[in-house]
Design a protein that fits this description.
Elements: E1 2-5, H1 6-22, H2 26-38, H3 42-61, E2 71-79, E3 82-85, H4 89-103, E4 127-133, E5 138-145, H5 147-150, E6 154-158, H6 163-178, E7 186-194, H7 196-206, H8 218-232, E8 247-257, E9 262-269, E10 276-279
Parallel strand pairs: 1-3, 2-4, 7-8
Antiparallel strand pairs: 2-5, 5-10, 6-9, 7-9
This protein binds iron/sulfur cluster (SF4).
Length: about 280
């Protein structure tokens, strides 16, 4: 049994909220660099160059990469040999978000009630996903999610007979309908299988997988590669202004499902696919 003080969770999450909003992860930066080289459309190339310049200025001057600093989505993978002390874990996470968004001068974008819509003024509460895993470590992933792209995400409750081609069509439909509204180049997180909520969770988690990593399942890897190719053929391009760089990656997670269903969730993220990861 390992004891972890919840104050350690707060401190890490505070720092990670600031980090994720000012620096893109190495894999995202690398794929953007590659796209600047490979994009042939002059306007598309210009947009990508502007995105690179924006990233450089954000890091140098400590300005958020985007004005929409997102709703804080936190994944906690908790080793089952960990025991937390010092207060409620959920409170510790939200305190980290509160401090991070205050100290980092990040935009507070969360409303307390979805219909009354009064801003909570500290970007809490976060959306927290807990997983119990083996071991005595805690893996924290902080993924602030902008809503330009979140709003373009979709769930399709397909029929088993729709098969793999139906799944591909659903993903392509979501991307085409998102178009410029999702601030492309996008990263496409997909969940296939499970139930209604499980596939949405898998799609969100897929966005945190490095964009240079594929699914370990051979046919899913092929599907990721084929879909990326087809998405980049749509011509939507950087900023939706045309070109061959519409998406950087398609990341697919799968799970067993019911004999009568084929749920597919498509969680779209923009070029500001933020995530900071720490293991404590
Ligand atoms: S979708 Fe992404 S790039 Fe567009 S405004 Fe939101 S966070 Fe910013």
């Amino acid at each position: 049994m390992r004891i972890v003080q919840t104050s350690v969770i707060t401190e890490n999450i505070k720092e990670m909220c600031i980090e994720a909003n000012h620096y893109l992860s190495k894999d995202m930066k690398a794929v953007l660099d590659q796209a600047v080289e490979s994009e042939k459309a002059p306007l598309g190339k210009q947009i990508l160059n502007q995105l690179e310049e924006n990233l450089r200025i954000a890091a140098e001057d400590m300005i958020p990469i985007c004005q929409d600093t997102g709703m804080a989505v936190i994944f906690l993978e908790i080793g089952q040999d960990v025991h937390f002390e010092g207060g409620l874990l959920e409170d510790a996470v939200n305190e980290g978000v509160r401090q991070g968004y205050e100290e980092g001068f990040l935009r507070k974008s969360v409303v307390k009630d979805p219909l009354i819509r009064e801003n909570t003024k500290d970007n809490t509460p976060a959306v927290i996903h807990y997983e119990i895993v083996s071991g005595d470590k805690v893996k924290i992933t902080v993924a602030p999610k902008g809503f330009g792209s979140e709003n373009m995400s979709r769930i399709f409750m397909l029929k088993p007979a729709d098969g793999i081609e139906g799944v591909k069509e659903a993903i392509l439909t979501a991307v085409k309908e998102a178009g410029p509204n999702a601030c492309p180049p996008m990263v496409i997180g997909v969940g296939i299988g499970g139930t209604f909520e499980k596939c949405a969770w898998m799609a969100k988690k897929a966005l945190t997988r490095p964009v240079d990593e594929h699914s370990p399942v051979p046919y899913i890897r092929e599907m990721e590669e084929e879909l990326l190719h087809r998405i980049n053929k749509t011509g939507i391009g950087p900023g939706g202004l045309g070109g061959s760089t519409t998406a950087f990656a398609v990341n697919i997670n799968t799970y067993p499902t019911h004999i009568a269903g084929l749920p597919v969730a498509v969680n779209i993220c923009c070029h500001v696919n933020r995530h900071a990861v720490r293991i404590i």
